[in-house]
Design goal:
With 440 residues, the chain is an alpha/beta fold. The chain is 39% helix and 22% strand. The chain folds into 2 domains: 104 residues, Urease, subunit C, domain 1; 295 residues, TIM Barrel, CATH 3.20.20. Strands 1, 2, 3, 4, 5, 17, 18, 19 and 20 form a 9-stranded mixed beta sheet that branches. It starts with a strand and ends with a helix. The structure holds zinc ion.
Amino acid sequence: MSVLLRGGTLLPLKDTPRPMWGDLLISGTRIGGLGKVDGLPPDTEVLDVSGCVVMPGVVQTHVHLVQTLFRGLAEDMPLLQWLRTRVWPLEAALDEASLRASVRLGLLDLLLTGTTTILDMGTTKHGDIVAEELVRSGMRARFGQTMMDTGEGVPPGLLETTRASLDASGALVKRWHKASSGRIGYVYMPRFALSCTRELLEAVTQLAKLSDLLVHTHSNESIEERNAVVMATGRSPMQYLLDTGIACDRAIIAHGVHLDDQELEILKNTKTSVAHCPSSNLKLGAGIAQVAKLRAARITVGLGADGAACNNQLDGFEEMRMATLLARVVSGIGSLTASDAMALATREGAKMLKIDAEVGSLEQGKRADLVVLDVNRLDGPGGDPAARILFGGGSRAIRHVLVDGEFLVRDGVPTKMDPNEVRAKAAEQLQPLLKRAGLA
Ligand SMILES: [Zn+2]
C-alpha cells in the first residue's frame, strides 16, 4: 500500500532547517521518496496536503503514561513532597483497570498532539498492561517498569525486593523487547538514586550491558533531591551514577537541571544523554536546565513532557516552545532556535534511543513516522514554517499522524481508539483510585 502526500511544505529536519516544497511518498512502512516523486505504484492513494507542513513525528524521551490519571491531583508541591504525598500513593493504588485507563488516556493525548515515539517509565507493577496498550496503539515506544527497592516515603505497595525488581524487568525483556517488528523495545528503569540500592544499580548496569539495552533514570532534577543524594551517597548524583556504572552511552537521564562542572564532564565523557523536560521543571519549581551549555559540550539532549501530574499537558510542541524560550533567557537569543528545538524533539531524541537510522527525520528509506500540520489553523499568514508552528499554536494544526506508514490520526481523528470511550473509562476510574490511595 502506498500513499502520496501531494504538494506540501516538507521539513525534513535532517541537517538543515531549510524547508522544501513537494510530495512525500509512503511505500508500506517506509518513506519511498521526497520532493518530486516519479513513477507512482498503481494502487497509490493520493492525499492533497497543500497548505500543510509535513515533518517527522515528535520523539519524547521522558513520559509516564501511568500518571495520566493523576493530572491535577498533585498541585503546588516541590518534587520530593509531590512524590511522597501524591504520586507514589497514587501509583501504589493503581490496579489493572485504572492503570490501563491511564495509559490509554496518555496515548490518546500524545497521538492527538503529534507524538509518534515515546520513552515511557511505568510504575513497579503491571508492565505487561503498559506493553499491551503500546502494541495496540500503534505508537513507537521504548518502555520499562520502574525499579524501587528502597527509599524514604516509598509506600509498601510500590517497594520491591532487589531480586524481585530485577526478575520482573528480566521477564518483561523476554516478553516484549523487539515486539511488533521492533516498534516496541525494553529499557531498564531504576527510578532514581534515592529509591534504588547500590546493589540494584550495579546489577542493572551488568544486565543492560550484557543485553545491550538502554537505561533510563531521573537525576539532578531539584536542589533538594540533589542534596539528598549527596547526603545518602557522599557523591554528587552524576558521580554516583558513574561509580555504579549507570552513566554510559546507553544511559538517558531525565532532567539534568542542577549539574556542576564535574558532572557535566561525566555526562560528556560517558556520552550519557539528557531528556530535558522544561514544563515539568518549571511547574515543580525545580529550575531550568542549561540546554545550550549541554549542547555546547556535545551532550545529546532530547525533550519530554514528563507525566500529566507535573505538566499537565503531554504536548511535545509545547515542550519545544518552552525549550527555545527558556534557552533565550538563560543563554541568549540564538542559543536554541525554533528549528533547533524541533531537532531536539525529533532527530536528537531518536539518536538517544538509538533509532536514528530508522526515524527522526524525513529521508528516503526511513520509517514513515510523520505528522502533517494544517498551518492555516495557526496564527499566520506567513513566515518561517518552524517558527510559525512553534510560536503560533503548534499541535492545534495536527491533521494526520503516522507511524510505520499507518495512520494513527487521520483528519484529526484517532483511528485505533475512540476518544469518548477512553476519556469516559478514565473518568470512571478516578474516584475509586482516589479512595484506594486515601486521598478521596
Ligand atoms: Zn519523570
